[in-house]
Amino acid sequence: MKKIAQAVMVAACLMGAGAAHAQLGGLGSLLSAAKGGSTGGDIGADVKTFVTQSAALSALTGRSVIAIKSAFDSAEQRAKTKAELDDIEKLTDAKERDARRAKLVESSAAEAKRLYDSGEMKTRMSSLDDASRKQVGNALLNYGIGALQAAALTKTGQSLIAKASANPMSIPQVLPVKDSLPLLGKVVSDSGGLIAGVIKLAQGAKIDVQSPKAESKPVELDII
């Protein structure tokens, strides 16, 4: 079995515009536009698409982290997490929704890291029930897909910023892009850090972890 971590890191370094287009649909056109394509001097539409894609990617990888941590939770803790996720999805204020989701992801990531660093995750991985094993495998696949997308989207964002630098009037428009780049970088970085470590533990416990490819689609990930 190919290792998912290797696939992510190779793609992060080598992925070109063609692979980015295959993964992210219309984002290939953003790269073209950033090099002087048909969108002319107005990059507002490209920025809007970038922000939309970045938000979707953040939700994908964030839910994956929550799912990994949740697989090791008690039934009571899982119910609490599911209730929190349901409440978040019901929020109509986008900023509040994003803030609460980010807080939940941050706490889940911290707990997952604690479990990993302490050795508890390794000890417990093999004893997970079938549903939890599947949840871990699917979460790792989705995170890998997100890391591939983050690598491609980072290049798109950098191209948009480069384009805006040629027209000072466009600079305010790309501020959301600039703000998103560190978050995208963290997704890629974590794919070679904690997530890579969890992958090794999962594979050691005979959990099926598929390798992401440019054309891979995220699987449905329920928090059980």
What does this structure look like?
- The protein has one domain (4-9, 44-204).
- The two termini are 27 Å apart.
- α4 packs across α6 (94-118), α4 (44-70) runs antiparallel to α8 and α5 (75-90) packs antiparallel against α6 (94-118).
- It is mostly helical and 224 residues long.
- Residues 1-40 have low confidence and may be disordered.
- It has helices spanning 4-14, 17-24, 27-34, 44-70, 75-90, 94-118, 120-125, 130-165, 175-191, 194-204.
- Helix content is 74%, strand content 0%.
Low-confidence stretches: 1-40
- Alpha carbon gap, first and last residue: 27 Å
Indicate how many domains the architecture comprises.
1
Helix/strand-derived class? mainly alpha
What's this model, at a glance?
This protein has 224 residues and is mainly α.
List keywords for this structure.
single chain, 224 residues, mainly alpha, 0% strand, disordered N terminus
Element layout with pairings:
Elements: H1 4-14, H2 17-24, H3 27-34, H4 44-70, H5 75-90, H6 94-118, H7 120-125, H8 130-165, H9 175-191, H10 194-204
